[in-house]
Amino acid sequence: MKPFILLFLFPFLLTAQDKSIIFTMRDHQVKQLILSSEDNVSYEYEDGLITTAAVIAGVSSQTFNYYSGDDRLDSVIVHTHLNKEIRISKKIYDYDKGGQLVCTRNGQDLLRENVEVDSFFYNAKGQLVQLRQYQNKLGMEAGYRRVDHLLPQVSVDYEYNNRGQIIRATSSGWMLPSTTHYYYDEQGRDLRSEKILFVDATKAEENEACLRIVSESEYDDTGLLVVTNISTYEIKPNGREKKIPGKIQMKRSYTFYDHL
After folding, report:
1. Does the structure show a pLDDT above 60 at 149?
2. Long-range CB contacts (< 8 A, 24+ apart) of 120-124?
3. Residue 41 CA to chain centroid, in angstroms?
4. Cβ 10 vs Cβ 247: under 8 Å
5. How far apart are CA 144 and CA 241, in angstroms?
6. Which pLDDT belongs to residue 28?
């Protein structure tokens, strides 16, 4: 495939503002992401793997480290510049013997301070069926796998169809519980999703739905995604829905170049 530039236009009907995002790609690798005239991101690669992502404005940068001779991430180090100070955080990836990601640990001081822990669980087919997010206030020295030191935050369960596509994701935890249904076309492309958010599950009353967020995708004749429409509906206690005014419409246009 020839190198090309992708131009994404995002007209937000709620704000009546147009924003452009430009990807500059070579050999299927994003070299530069231009968010605006003042803000853009550059990427560096080695052996086909991304090694650095840096915000040109100097706000932050990320360094990606991999296992020797492998394309699995070992860790990601983030440098954030705030008021002439540099804040460094690290995310570590753990895998099982089969090479599946089983855990990530993220924080500024992984040994002694607040650590966010994500644990991943799979079925016999190797499909991700559950994601659990925890916080460990005592740091890694206390043992991140010891349940008594982990504060559960969010749990997400996934269900699949016979084609291996996710058809439902159910989340619970400190945020609003939600259930998301996914629908696909005959080509297996994302066609539509519906996310139902519920009232606070910690309250004594029944868990009632309060919002429904619908996302619909459209493709051109070549199969490229060109439009995504997002609408939100308020669900009343009596079950009736009221559409919230305004709609987000994300449009994409593609311009191909022979040479960059």
Report:
1. no
2. none
3. 18
4. no
5. 43
6. 60
pLDDT in tens, 172-209: 876 678 999 999 999 999 999 999 998 765 543 455 77
Residue 188: predicted pLDDT:
93
With tokens 């510049």, the residue in question is: 81
Long-range contacts at 51-58 (CB < 8 A, ≥ 24 apart): none
The structure's pTM equals 0.74
The values of phi and psi at residue 169, to 5°, are -130, 125
Q: How many residues in the chain?
A: 260
4 token code pair: 């090309």
Number of Cβ within a 10 Å radius of residue 36:
11
How crowded is residue 167: how many other Cβ atoms within 10 Å of its Cβ? Answer: 15
The answer to whether 229 and 215 are in contact (CB under 8 A) is yes
Task: For residue 107, give the nearest of 98, 116, 95, 119 by alpha carbon.
Answer: 116
String of DSSP letters for 141-157:
GG-TT-GGG-EEEEEEE
